[in-house]
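Example for tutorial group B:
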């Protein structure tokens, strides 16, 4: 959840670290700090609040240049105070480190060291690591760190410097992500690969139970016993421009506008001549596909809602027994899992701890596992093996937008491909849906035209003072309600709930009034009349209606003047054309309310603990 940046080289260390920390701001944090070692002395400063505040302190304190590490903290142990912020320095001033994750036995270590006369200065679990390191350090960093890894329990990414070791940064990883890079006599480490794009696209993702030494000459990797091993670099097909906001007011708005391109890129090489073909990604055979009796979709948050949409679409093929499971629950339920199960794990970052744990469980029970992720060679990709990589590029806004439609595209292709392998996909269905998908980028682009966006902004402005919202739809129009409501909650802090349109009368109808508008998804399909009868009933309770309807649906204007029109598309693909209007509605509501859109309170981009 926190952000780490480390640098060793001959350039302006503090400037590189501060800039790298700024590229981690989307992870959300409450405090920040930096430490550099120059002439064998540790110089550090910390602050509560934004990177800009830390940069001001660094400038005022005239930091010496050397090699260094920085950190943005999202508190888990100890209050949000300057004293609890990272980096932490040992009492003997020999060791300084930063830490992502949680050390489960921190109190046990602390008690033991305090009994030996070592004084602690913070409330954090992290300090137990730095004090223990200093206690066992006898001049060999690798030896001390391997002792530490055998002593502590939990999940962590540690980045460490020793005051008597010039131009050396050490990292240790277990259950928390860290990436390492090197170029032109410069070494780097970061929590997020986007922080290194300015310097190199060839990086190493740290494995679990792995150490790294970073210096000017290169990087070396070791296991937790200190045995060195070779490690291949991974080339990241991203560039620094992708991580820039450009002329957009917020990253979220930029990423909403990138979705036509993202969907087109996801289709590239996977569809041709109105046929789906994932054989370049997966070496599955028809015999294998016919042997899977159950499909489990496992994910969290937005990724989970993408799987709910995909499951509804796959059910129309009539060939699968499908479950959509929340990853944090999957590992703790007695769900039948075995060799006849295809378990599909969807995670933007590839580092979500709940999804990782679920994948390990399914793998241990013999299930066939597949991951859909935006980050090639991420932890879950390395552990699972079979993967479909979404080409969305770095997503900086905390609220997922373009990665959602990329996942949705990949999931629809996967569902069709599985049905095709099993001999259950009708040729006319394949042609119809592929034509719908290949026309989707243009349809999404039409939703982003100025007139469309201004209409959504106007509606949002009119309802920004509402107390809460209800989202409703039927069948294939229900899953996008879930994601739309989540977007509004995430960035505007308003209560928003999604229900199947016919379910509202079983309880939630009691809450309807003029302060609780209904966002009704009413595509022109066979369920249009049933949905409209629900709208009529709920209008009688006083709730204003905001309709997301198919273009040229003239009848909808009899019920409301607040209408967002979407292009006509295949019924199974309605989630695509609903996504952008609901994202923009949430965005403009939050903007009208003055919320911090790219870094909403209490949220992080990847929940790794």
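The residue assignment follows.
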């Amino acid at each position: 959840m926190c952000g780490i940046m480390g640098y060793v080289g001959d350039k302006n260390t503090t400037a590189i670290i501060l800039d790298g920390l700024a590229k981690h701001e989307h992870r959300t944090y409450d405090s920040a700090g930096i430490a550099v070692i120059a002439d064998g002395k540790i110089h550090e400063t910390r602050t509560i609040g934004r990177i800009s505040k830390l940069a001001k302190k660094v400038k005022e304190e005239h930091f010496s240049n050397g090699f260094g590490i920085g950190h943005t903290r999202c508190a888990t142990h100890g209050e949000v105070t300057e004293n609890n912020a990272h980096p932490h320095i040992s009492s003997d001033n020999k060791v300084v480190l930063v830490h992502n994750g949680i050390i489960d036995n921190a109190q046990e270590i602390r008690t033991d060291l305090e009994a030996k006369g070592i004084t602690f200065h913070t409330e954090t679990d992290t300090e137990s690591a730095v004090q223990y390191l200093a206690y066992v350090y006898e001049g060999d960093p690798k030896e001390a760190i391997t002792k530490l890894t055998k002593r502590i329990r939990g999940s962590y990414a540690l980045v460490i410097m020793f005051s008597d070791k010039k131009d050396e940064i050490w990292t240790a990883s277990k259950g928390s992500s860290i990436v390492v890079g090197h170029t032109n006599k410069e070494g780097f480490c970061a929590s997020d690969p986007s922080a290194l794009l300015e310097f190199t696209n060839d990086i190493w993702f740290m494995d679990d139970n792995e150490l790294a030494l970073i210096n000017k000459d290169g990087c070396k990797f070791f296991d937790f016993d200190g045995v060195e091993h070779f490690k291949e670099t991974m080339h990241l097909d991203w560039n620094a421009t992708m991580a820039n906001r450009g002329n957009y007011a917020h990253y979220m708005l930029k990423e909403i506008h990138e979705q036509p391109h993202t969907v087109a890129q996801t289709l590239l090489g996977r569809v041709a001549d109105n046929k789906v073909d994932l054989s370049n990604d997966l070496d599955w055979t028809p015999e294998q596909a016919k042997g899977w009796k159950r499909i489990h979709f496992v994910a969290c948050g937005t990724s989970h809602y993408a799987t709910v949409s995909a499951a509804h679409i796959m059910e129309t093929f009539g060939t699968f027994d499908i479950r959509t499971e929340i990853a944090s629950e999957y590992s703790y339920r007695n769900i039948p899992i075995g060799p006849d199960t295809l378990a599909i794990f969807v995670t933007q970052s590839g580092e979500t701890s709940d999804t990782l744990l679920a994948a390990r469980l399914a793998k241990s029970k013999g299930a066939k596992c597949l991951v859909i992720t935006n980050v090639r060679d991420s932890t879950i990709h390395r552990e699972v093996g079979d993967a479909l990589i979404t080409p969305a590029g770095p997503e900086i806004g905390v609220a997922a937008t373009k990665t959602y439609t990329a996942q949705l595209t990949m999931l629809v292709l996967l569902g069709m491909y599985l049905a095709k392998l099993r001999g259950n996909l009708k040729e006319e269905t394949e042609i119809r849906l592929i034509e719908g998908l290949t026309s989707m980028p243009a349809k999404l682009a039409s939703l982003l035209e100025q007139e469309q966006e201004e209409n959504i902004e106007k509606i949002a402005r009119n309802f920004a003072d509402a107390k809460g919202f209800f989202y409703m739809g039927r069948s294939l129009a229900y899953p996008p309600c879930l994601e739309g409501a989540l977007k509004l909650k995430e960035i505007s802090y308003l209560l928003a709930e999604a229900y199947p349109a016919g379910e509202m009368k079983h309880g939630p109808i009691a809450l309807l009034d003029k302060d609780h508008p209904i966002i009704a998804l009413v595509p022109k399909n066979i369920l249009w009349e049933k949905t409209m009868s629900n709208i009529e009933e709920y209008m009688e309770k006083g709730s204003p209606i905001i309709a997301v309807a198919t273009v040229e649906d003239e009848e909808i204007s009899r019920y409301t003047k607040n209408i967002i029109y979407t292009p006509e598309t295949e019924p199974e693909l309605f989630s695509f054309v609903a996504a952008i209007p609901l994202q923009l509605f949430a965005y403009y509501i939050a903007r009208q309310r003055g919320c911090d859109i790219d870094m909403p309170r209490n949220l992080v981009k990847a929940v790794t603990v």
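The mean pLDDT is 89. Compare this with the pattern of hydrophobic and polar residues in the output above.
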